[in-house]
Design a protein that fits this description.
Acyl_CoA_acyltransferase, GNAT_dom, 6 helices, N-acetyltransferase domain-containing protein, 7-stranded mixed β-sheet, alpha+beta, Aminopeptidase, 7 strands
């Protein structure tokens, strides 16, 4: 059965999904060693309530219009009781910045370990870019992962006034995601050595930076 189209998270409609988002976040850290903000404790357990508080904060950002989160669900008939199951998600960070209103950060591309190799990542990323275009980029602004571009001044005035969407995202070298983003049209910027603590080994791992310019 074909997957339904990805949808956008709305706090007034989907706040009950926050525990599911937090649990999937924790599952990806434990299952894959995904490096995304949180680490397991010495017993190898994730502090899911802490992650839930984090997602509650992200939900508030959606309500303020500075974040978009894209959700992918299973078809209703695929799960017991004909209820859809969350398969994966990705988030677009749009913090306010007068100096970079055309930029946005792609964050938290996570797919449930139970729903890998079904095209979920490609689907939610496609929807994210569609929404970014619809925003006209007036709300797409610099995030911390976009700081390498803060000083660019080589674009001409027409380019600066055009609806340009410049997204940068980060991924751990060797995680597998480094092969996905080029397939989606993202270009590698470089590698930051010893950037993050790996949740399984506690070793410092390198971070890769990618970007995509959606002007076409």
């Amino acid at each position: 059965m074909p997957l339904p189209s990805p949808i956008l998270y709305h706090p007034s409609l989907h706040s009950l999904l926050l525990p599911h988002l937090a649990q999937m976040h924790a599952d990806c850290v434990l299952h894959d060693g995904t490096v995304t903000a949180f680490l397991p404790n010495q017993q190898g357990e994730m502090d899911v309530p802490k992650i839930l508080d984090h997602w509650a904060g992200l939900s508030e950002e959606v309500e303020r219009g500075v974040r978009v989160t894209v959700l992918q669900f299973t078809p209703a008939a695929e799960t017991e009781g004909s209820e859809s199951e969350l398969m994966g998600f990705v988030s677009l960070s749009m913090p306010v910045s007068e100096s970079g209103p055309f930029r946005a950060g792609v964050e938290k591309l996570l797919v449930s370990p139970q729903h890998r190799r079904k095209g979920v990542a490609r689907r939610v990323m496609g929807k994210l870019e569609e929404v970014a275009r619809e925003k006209g980029r007036v709300l797409l602004v610099r995030s911390h992962s976009l700081s390498l571009y803060a000083g660019q001044s080589t674009r001409n005035q027409a380019d600066r006034e055009a609806f340009v969407i410049l997204q940068m995202l980060e991924t751990i070298k060797g995680s597998g995601a480094e092969h996905l983003y080029p397939k989606l049209g993202y270009k590698e910027v470089g590698v930051i050595p010893r950037h993050s603590i790996h949740p399984h080994t506690r070793e410092l791992v390198d971070e890769m930076l990618f970007y995509k310019d959606l002007r076409g």
